[in-house]
Structure formats: C-alpha cells, structure tokens
Design brief:
By secondary structure, the protein is of the alpha/beta class. It folds into two domains: 256 residues, Type I PLP-dependent aspartate aminotransferase-like (Major domain) (Aspartate Aminotransferase, domain 2, 3-Layer(aba) Sandwich); 134 residues, Aspartate Aminotransferase, domain 1 (Alpha-Beta Complex). The chain contains 15 helices and twelve strands. The strands form two sheets. Strands 1-7-6-5-4-2-3 form a seven-stranded mixed beta sheet, sandwiched between helices. A five-stranded mixed beta sheet has the order 8-9-12-11-10. Helix 4 packs parallel to helix 5, helix 4 crosses helix 9 and helix 13 crosses helix 15. The longest helix is centred in the last third of the chain and has 20 residues. It is globular, with a radius of gyration of 23 Å. The N and C termini lie far apart (69 Å). The structure holds pyridoxal-5'-phosphate. Pyridoxal-5'-phosphate binds next to helix 4.
Amino acid sequence: MSDHHRGLRPESRIVHPPIEEVTGSRPLGVPLHQGHVFAFPDSDALAEAFGGPDGAFHYSRFGNPTVRSLERAVADLEGGSGALAASSGMGAITTVLHALLRSGDHVIAQQSLYGGTFATLADLAARWGVEVTQVRGDDPGEVRAALRPTTRLLYLETVSNPVARVTDLPALIGAARAAGVLSVVDNTFATPLLCRPIEHGADLVIHSATKYLGGHSDVLAGLAVFADERLHHRVWEHAVEHGAALDPFAAWLTLRGMQTLGLRMRRHCEAALDLAGRLAAHPAVAAVHHPGLPGHPDHERALRLLPDGQGGTFAFDLAGGREAARAFVGAVRLASLAPSLGGVHTLVLHPASTTHRQLSDAELTAAGIGPATVRIAVGIEHPEDLWADLEQALTGF
Ligand SMILES: *Cc1c(COP(=O)(O)O)cnc(C)c1O
C-alpha cells in the first residue's frame, strides 16, 4: 500500500488494496486484466492515450491488455499487421461493414455467406441503400462482371457452410484488387492454421472465435485482422463508437482455448475426413460433401488452398430423404443436435429446417443444400466411438 493511503479509514483502504506487481519472475499464462479503467499520473498522459489503438490503456472499450494479447496472437497467426477483437463474430462483422460502407456503396458478396452476415448486408441494403451483388465464389469473371464505380468491398468465406465449397480466394481477391476494391474473408471454418487469406491478397480477415479458435463452446468472441495498419486504425475508431468490445475474461478464455488449436485442428481434420469416407460407403447415405474426397467439386482447389487439412465441418445427404435426415439428427447419442461448430463436442443439425430455414427452395438448391442434407461438426472424441454412434443413428430408424 502506498504511503499516502496510511492513516485512511478502513472503508477507504479496502477500495485501494495493494496491487501486486510481478518482479523477478514472469507469468507463464496471459494475465487477466478484468478492470476496465486505468489511472494516469497527469492529464497530458491521459490525453495522449486517446490517440489510437496503440495508445496507453485507459478504458477497456478502447483497448485492454488481455484483449490486446488475443488481438496480437491472432494477427500473428494470420500474418496481419494488427487485429481488433469484438464481443462476437457478428460484432466484428457489423463493425467492419459499418466502418467501411456508406449509402450508395456497392458490395460483391458470396452467395453462401453465414446467415447473420447475409442478414446484416440485407439490412444495410434495405435501410442504408448499400447495393449487394451475389457471386458463386469459383469464378473471378463473375466478380469482374459485377464491378461498378461504386464497388467498395468483396466479401467471401474460405469454406462455405454447410456443403464445404472452397472459394477460389487468390482468383477472386485478385479480380477485386485489380479494381482497387477491398477484400474481406471470413476464415472461421479454416482457421489460420489451414489457410491465411492475407497471403492470397485479402485486406481483412474475420473470425468467429466462438468456433475453432475458442474451441470449447464456452465463449463468444470475434476478430477482424487487418493487412494494413491504416485500415486497422479506421475500423478501430468505429469499433470504439459501436461498443462491440470483447470482455477481457472472454479474451482470456479464447487465448486459453487457442493454445491447443494445433492439436485440435489436426484431430478435427483427420476424424472428419475418416468419417466422410466411411459415410460415403454406407448404403443409407446418398452423397457426402467433404472437399477432401475426390468426388467433391472443389477437391483439387481444396488440396491447393487447404493442403494441411480441409476442416472439421462437412455435410452429407441421406438416401431416405427429409424425414430420414430429421430422424438421424434426433437419433445420435454421443454427438448432439445443436447449432454452432468448432468445439470439442461433435454436433449435428438439419440445415433445411434450422440454420437455413429462411431460404427459398431455389436458394437452398443454389447453396447446395437438399431436404436430406445433414451438417456435422466433428469434435475431438475418438473417431471409432463417433463412427459407432453415426452408424447406429443411420440404421436405428
Ligand atoms: C458463427 C459464425 C459467425 C458469427 O459468429 P458469432 O460469434 O456467433 O457472432 C460468422 N461467420 C461464420 C462463418 C460463423 O460460423
């Protein structure tokens, strides 16, 4: 306790307990700075702290040491110059879109985007006059044809949900870049261990760290990673206004989960490919949509862009149609019927009646989703136990 606290009454002293500084050793894990406010020696020092994302910590909506550790860790993995953490993947996405777009701007967006991203773009279109053109994700000619003088952004996902189409990132980003259009890539499904979109020319990478980065289904978090420091600064100013800041404890949980990302991704990828192969050979299964299998339309691109593994989430169609798919997702025992993905638990769901229920039949077909399609996000359980569960659910109705 500092000297000027001596002689104070107990009520005052307890508000100012000693804060232990670590000297002579160092913490092995990232310290949790849950407090949201930082004190300064004088007004000039505080004034200077307001200047930008690299100013001294003063108020956690502007920046926090634990959150900064997460931002730097993910920026490093993605090969970016900096990153911005948000309270969820959607927090990162809306912050980026609102920071970079204004009325009258045009966006070229991949057809099969995450539902929340699609809803935000639709809202920007309906209420703010942002225009959106959809493209498939495998043809740079489509991007070139969609370009207008007002085009501001190309928005892509590395791997699509749920049928795991692999986007031709270098070709599409190249087409945007040649026209001076910024590229944003949601890399949630691939993680920076399988693909680093900045290496393919992306300006901005998005993560729902709620999924593989956090990895344990116990935290919501999002990140935007920037190739360029100026873009980071611009979006950071809006992030402070939007207030989508990540809570320090959520950042701490995400960092703790991320330490095993390498082990988990290897297991997710190996088990998913193994199960995909076994499903493809099962008489109750009509088709398997896993880019690591030779029959997938993006198999060659997947081997080129995702050589270390094609991820842990894929889909398959049951031969028995819609009712068989709905019965299957209710019959699993080790796996669980739940939304989300990227955690240690294996999850299944029926996209046509849940995550993609707002889509028309034509939109479902365009997204490659049939009435009998099941999505599986493979966890880290033993693959033999998982196969036994899938097999009993395939034959048990
Ligand atoms: C889950 C998800 C999001 C949204 O992330 P939240 O953390 O739930 O807000 C965005 N993009 C993709 C690809 C996702 O899977």
